[in-house]
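Ticket #4471: complex job returned nothing on first submit. Input attached below:
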Amino acid sequence: MNKLLPLLIGAIGVLLLATLMLVILPAWQLRTSQPPAQLQPYTEQQLFGRQQYVANGCIYCHSQQPRSTGQTLFDGARGWGRASTPGDYFYDTPHLLGTMRTGPDLLNVGARLKSRDWHLTHLYQPRAIFDWSIMPSYPYMFDVKDEAAQDDVVVRLPAQFQPPGGRVVVARKEALDLVEYLLSLDRTYPASHEELQKRDRGYDHRPETAADGHAG
Amino acid sequence: MTPILGTLLATSFVASLVALGILVWAVANKLIFVGKAEASTIFMEGELGHPDDSSSFGKQNEDESHHFDVLRAGIDRAGKGPVLVLITAGILWLLIGSTFGVIASLKLHWPDWLADVAQITFGRARTLHLNIVAYGWLSVTGIGVALWLLPRIFHTPLRRPNMAYLGAFLWTLGVLGGTIAVANGWSDGIEWLEFPWQIDLVLALGGFFLAWPAIETAARRKSRHIYVSGWYFLAGMVWFPFLFLVANIPGLHVGAQQATVNWWFAHNVLGLWLTPMGVGMAYYIIPKIIGKPVYSYNVSLLGFWSLALFYSQVGIHHLMGGPIPTWAVTLSVVHSIMMFVPVIAVAINQHVTVATNMWAFKQSMSLRFVWIGALMYTLSSFQGSIEAIRSVNSITHFTHYTVGHAHLGAYGFVSLVLFGTLYYMMPHIVGRRWPYPKLVQTHFWLVVVGFTIYFVSLTIAGVLQGMGLMDPGSSFAEITRSMIPYLEGRSIGGTLMTLGHFVFAAHFALLLLKKESSTNSVDTFAPVKAS
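Support reply: We reran it on our side without changes. The output follows.
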């Protein structure tokens, strides 16, 4: 190894091979996905809410990729939904698959927790709902007022979490948008056979039956 | 389409093996010659056989290393300014980055602590910690070391130091800009790529001005042979810009496909940027301190190219069980297992060299940091290969176990090697010994004990969490409650590590500010004379 140019060309060549295998070929295969018929594009408010999800780093504790029953029965038992397929993320930029489950998977949170009030309370103070929760509270997405204005959304709180002196907690736009996004998360429609073929099926015991991906 | 992809997958693997086979054959038949003579090019005439570490071997060794360093000091001098600027900036980022790490860690078990300060909510503090230590501490300090080390192995002074100053300034500005952006909620939202792409342009420009002097110095080298550290540094300097630019192109990547780009990038930042820097430094510092060339230099060639071939394709194991094709995941699993090849090659060279010279390990604090770091490279890589096996990954995926593993690599390996390297190189650069050797020991024990607590806590937490997430009978409440003691343990370990960093930074400041004392000086700035 005495020459500079062969070293640098070799190094780039190897990385190009890796780029072909890990970036270009998967892109070629995944970009053919069409949005599933039941999947709606995000509304403007949901997209604003999605920005809040990104800005506050929800992804670092919440994944958005339920696992198949071939891998674990836990996800199904929690009602997190069927294993996701590439088409489920058709409208997702940036992708928010996540790699950590300090909290539950959220890809179908809108299907299992449909109450806006529940989400607002939970964002303002998670421990008002689950005493064991270690999720951060997000007081900066809320205002504490003496009296709610006409179009204010007041957060419902148990007595010990209410601000003192009869004041009320109202949701700011950030909280309302974020909840709107969370409520939109619902990929519980069935996945097509072609779509299921495009996900990682390495854990499925019998890849020829599509049933594994549907269960849960 | 599946058979086509299957064939491609097998082709990629077979091609890698054939390429390595040819390499082994060429080395065995002396078509490529890398032997003891090449391994010894890091030593100057008469230097071989003399241990060198001004802070550890003390007076009896001083006259000798002193004499041999006169020539090399002429080489060090040209790059002294930018190297010192980069290292100082890197250490400042270390302090800021580890403080954010401690904040994030505390917030996981004190969720209402400082909750009304949006800038340090868990999701942002954690992101800032990662980006600052990766692009601030590890990258900036690493580049600083590279700009000091490359001229030495090339036997020629650093070219275009002014360009390096500009690069250091722009890069620091980029990291600062990214930090402010993310703290205020402006983020690209992709792990390891959170800094907004507009700010990444500043980083890219800074990187360009830092890489240019290195490449130009390499092109005008006086040594015929490029020492192995040079392969790693120079390759890293072309790999990282390529990765960074492709991954950051706005609007190009979407949906599930973006996830594959995400982990192609994020794992290659470790594999093709931080790892080459750490391995390259250890390859230089270990033999230099001991005064003997590495154990088996031709194996280092195999180690380098197999690292490039296998490490570059392992990233998709982060998406195991996810909405991306089975073949891509399998490809990364196979290459993850193949990582045993480069890791063992490096291990043979570095560990045998130290293990046969334990006297040096006992005496030199610098070598102690570097070798323990090198051992952690071996361990974290073995652990990474095992984690990529599907049955193991089923449990460790989505858990704190992965966080522990990431820190074994980025901290146990790269950061410890950096600490040791800085302890070795700073006296050569400033011409003075470290003023308080006791502080080096304090630093060492704080980070070693702290990191052990940190790693053990997260590993146990991760296994418990992973078992819970596999058991349909368990509940999220149970899993979360069982995590708390280990998360607290992690905060204790992380705090000790951070204290160690403050001790280190204070010692570094004292070394820079201290007036030269005649008894304690190493005269590295005498005029260059031929030996």
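Chain A touches chain B through 82 residues (CB under 8 Å). Closing as resolved unless it happens again.
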